[in-house]
C-alpha cells in the first residue's frame, strides 16, 4: 500500500505524546498526527481524544524533508459550523479596577519623577 499525499488510510496508534500521536500502518510505515491535526477545536490534552492501541482513519498530508509521514485526523472530520473559541475572562469588580488604576498612576509617577535625594550610607555601630 503506497501512502501518498491525499491518501486516506487506517492505522493503529502506537504512541501518544504531548505533541501528537504516532500511527503505524499495515505496511510497517509510521507517521505522526500533530496535536493541531487531532480535532477542529483546541486540544488541551491529547489523551482526551486518542489512546494508544486505538485504530484511526487518517489522511496523509504529505512527507517532510526526511520522508516522514505527516498525518491528519481533523481533515477527515466534518468541520463544525463555528469553531468554539476559548471563553473570555469577565470584567473585574469596579473596586479592583479602581485600585489597579491608582497603582498604575502611582507607579508611573514614581518612575517619571527621577531619582530621589541621595541617602548617606548608615554607619555601622561597633560593639
* Rg over CA atoms: 28 Å
Summed up, the helix count is 1
Question: Averaging pLDDT over every residue, what do you get?
Answer: 85
Low-confidence stretches: none
Q: Which structural class is indicated by helix and strand composition?
A: alpha+beta
Shape: elongated
Q: Strand-residue fraction?
A: 25-35%
Largest sheet: 5 strands, mixed, barrel
The helicity comes to 10-25%
What's the arrangement of strands in the largest beta sheet?
Answer: 1-2-3-5-4
Describe what this molecule looks like in 3D.
With 127 residues, the protein is an alpha+beta fold. 15% of the residues lie in helices and 26% in strands. The protein is built from 1 helix and 5 strands; from the N terminus they run βββββα. A hairpin with a 5-residue loop joins β4 and β5.
Summarize the SSE layout with pairings.
Blueprint: E1 8-17, E2 20-24, E3 30-34, E4 55-63, E5 69-72, H1 94-112
Parallel strand pairs: 3-5
Antiparallel strand pairs: 1-2, 1-4, 2-3, 4-5
Summarize the structure.
This protein has 127 residues and is of the alpha+beta class. The chain contains 1 helix and 5 strands; from the N terminus they run βββββα.
Give me some keywords for this one.
single chain, 127 residues, alpha+beta, five-stranded mixed barrel, 26% strand, elongated
Amino acid at each position: 500500500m503506497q501512502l501518498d499525499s491525499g491518501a486516506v488510510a487506517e492505522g493503529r496508534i502506537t504512541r501518544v505524546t504531548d505533541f501528537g500521536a504516532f500511527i503505524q500502518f499495515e505496511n510497517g510505515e509510521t507517521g505522526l498526527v500533530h496535536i493541531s491535526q487531532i480535532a477542529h477545536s483546541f486540544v488541551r490534552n491529547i489523551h482526551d481524544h486518542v489512546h494508544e492501541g486505538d485504530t484511526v482513519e487518517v489522511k496523509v498530508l504529505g512527507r517532510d524533508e526526511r520522508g516522514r509521514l505527516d498525518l491528519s485526523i481533523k481533515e477527515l472530520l466534518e468541520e463544525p459550523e463555528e469553531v468554539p473559541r476559548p471563553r473570555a475572562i469577565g470584567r473585574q469588580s469596579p473596586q479592583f479596577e479602581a485600585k489597579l488604576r491608582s497603582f498604575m498612576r502611582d507607579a508611573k509617577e514614581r518612575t517619571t519623577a527621577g531619582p530621589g535625594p541621595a541617602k548617606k550610607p548608615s554607619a555601622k555601630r561597633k560593639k
